[in-house]
Amino acid sequence: MFIDTQGMSDADKTKKRRQLLMEQMQYQSDLKKTERKQNDLKDEMRRLEQERNRTEVYINENKEETQQNIVKADFYTEELRRIKKQIIELG
Predict the structure, then answer these.
(1) Cα separation of 9 and 27, whole Å?
(2) Using CA atoms, how far apart are residues 53 and 89, in angstroms rounded to an integer?
(3) Is residue 83 within 8 Å of 76, Cβ to Cβ?
(4) What percentage of the chain's residues is helix, strand, coil (to nearest 5)?
(5) DSSP secondary-structure letter at 9?
(6) DSSP, res 82
(7) Whole-angstrom Cα distance, residue 91 to residue 85?
(8) What span, in angstroms and rounded, lies between the C-alpha atoms of 21 and 42?
(9) What 3-state DSSP class applies to 2?
(10) 36-52: per-residue pLDDT in tens?
(11) How far apart are CA 48 and CA 25, in angstroms?
(12) What's the confidence (pLDDT) of residue 6?
């Protein structure tokens, strides 16, 4: 934005300069707030991704353990049937 200063008095120029400096400071402050917020959001995203990865590991471990328990339960059920059959055969 171009400001025509040729017809301005020194007082008007000073006033305009102060006004622009105040506007500049406000925008710099707003920019810093926005950058801090952006960094906070990045940190939060990183934390959530780590938590998600940790949760996915727990889910996979749980699935594996559940599968192992199913296999064990099937084995124990078959063994109990076998033993029960032998007991019946023994009379």
Answers:
(1) 27
(2) 54
(3) no
(4) 90, 0, 10
(5) -
(6) H
(7) 10
(8) 31
(9) coil
(10) 999 999 999 999 999 99
(11) 34
(12) 75
